[in-house]
UniProtKB/TrEMBL annotation:
High-level lineage: Bacteria, Pseudomonadati, Pseudomonadota, Betaproteobacteria, Burkholderiales
Official protein name in the record: Ribosomal RNA small subunit methyltransferase A
Family annotation (CDD domains): AdoMet_MTases
Its EC number(s): 2.1.1.182
Organism: Advenella kashmirensis W13003
Family (UniProt): Belongs to the class I-like SAM-binding methyltransferase superfamily. rRNA adenine N(6)-methyltransferase family. RsmA subfamily.
Protein location: Cytoplasm
InterPro entries with a match to the protein in the record: KsgA/Erm, rRNA_Ade_diMease-like_C, rRNA_Ade_Mease_Trfase_CS, rRNA_Ade_methylase_Trfase_N, rRNA_adenine_dimethylase, SAM-dependent_MTases_sf
Reaction(s) catalysed by this chain's protein: adenosine(1518)/adenosine(1519) in 16S rRNA + 4 S-adenosyl-L-methionine = N(6)-dimethyladenosine(1518)/N(6)-dimethyladenosine(1519) in 16S rRNA + 4 S-adenosyl-L-homocysteine + 4 H(+)
Biological function: Specifically dimethylates two adjacent adenosines (A1518 and A1519) in the loop of a conserved hairpin near the 3'-end of 16S rRNA in the 30S particle. May play a critical role in biogenesis of 30S subunits.
GO cellular component: cytosol
Listed NCBIfam families: ksgA (TIGR00755)
Residue ranges of every copy of the Ribosomal RNA adenine methylase transferase N-terminal domain listed in the record: 20-188
């Protein structure tokens, strides 16, 4: 088959290190009948070992040439190729107990993680290769410099674990950054939940728009009795836990803000 020129606009950095590929597949540990969906299969580095361990694998690939190669390479009854932009994919159509995996295109990682939040109910787990720095933001705790909107929005929905780092040399072409693999498991229905997801996500976005300012200044046009909410008047967004944000969002909903 003709050599494929990596396309920068699709964030194409292909995994070439067999030991990294093996570690990712071991971390996923698929059983034959698991419903696995791979995002961005590219030149099949993960697709081959995954497909070998599964009765069926679904993949989502935006690059027309790569999608055509995949269709040629694998039998249609064992691999379904969805040629699509993953940001527009309705994962509800794949059913439930989904296991979503991928060495993700780094240029869309945040929008993609937010897109997937809406399908968390259908998901059993997610294993992703991402920029190490993005994973640090996902798992950061209140008070840490990496703690921000991504941490709060994802920690409200998933239990997340940074599994291992992957150096640039494991890819062709090598990215400029160090990568890492994260496991994300949706929290159960008994998790603390905001009364309004919309109010919660708007509050978090607004609170972190000026993270160094005191919250009472960032939210100055809302009447908030901080003592009643149980948050210090001088607190900054970076000090609030997920539970604090949920309480504050619920308070604002109750106030009709
Ligand atoms: N999985 C392969 C590997 O590990 O070698 C390729 C990983 S490469 C970092 C990212 C892959 O995602 C590429 O195949 C790229 O074409 C695909 N991709 C980029 N943007 C996408 C999008 N919006 N929707 C679906 N696939 C996308």
């Amino acid at each position: 088959m003709a050599v494929h020129q990596a396309r920068k606009r699709f964030g194409q950095n292909f995994l070439t290190d067999d030991s990294v590929i093996e570690s990712i597949v071991r971390a996923i540990d698929p059983a034959r009948t698991d419903r696995v969906i791979e995002i961005g299969p590219g030149l099949s580095a993960l697709t081959v070992p995954l497909q070998a361990r599964l009765d069926h694998l679904a993949v989502i690939e935006i690059d027309r040439d790569l999608a055509a190669r995949l269709r040629k390479r694998f039998p249609a009854d064992r691999l379904t190729v969805h040629e699509a932009d993953v940001l527009t994919v309705d994962f509800a159509e794949f059913g439930s107990e989904l296991r979503i995996v991928g060495n993700l295109p780094y240029n869309i990682s945040s929008p993609l993680l937010f897109h997937l939040v809406s399908f968390a109910e259908q998901v059993r787990d997610q294993h992703f290769m991402l920029q190490k720095e993005v994973i640090a933001r996902m798992v950061a705790r209140p008070g840490e410099s990496d703690y921000g909107r991504l941490s709060v929005m994802l920690q409200a929905r998933y239990d997340m674990r940074h599994l291992f780092d992957v150096p640039p040399e494991a890819f062709d072409p090598p990215p400029k950054v160090t990568s890492a693999v994260v496991r994300m498991v949706p929290l159960s229905a008994e998790r603390p939940q905001a009364k309004s997801e919309r109010a919660f996500s708007q509050l978090v976005a607004r609170a972190f728009s000026q993270r160094r300012k005191m919250l009472r200044r960032v939210l100055a046009d809302w009447q908030i009795d901080w003592a009643e909410v149980g948050i210090a008047e001088t607190a900054r967004a970076e000090a609030l836990s997920v539970a604090d944000f949920i309480r504050l969002a619920d308070y604002l909903v109750d106030q009709g803000v």
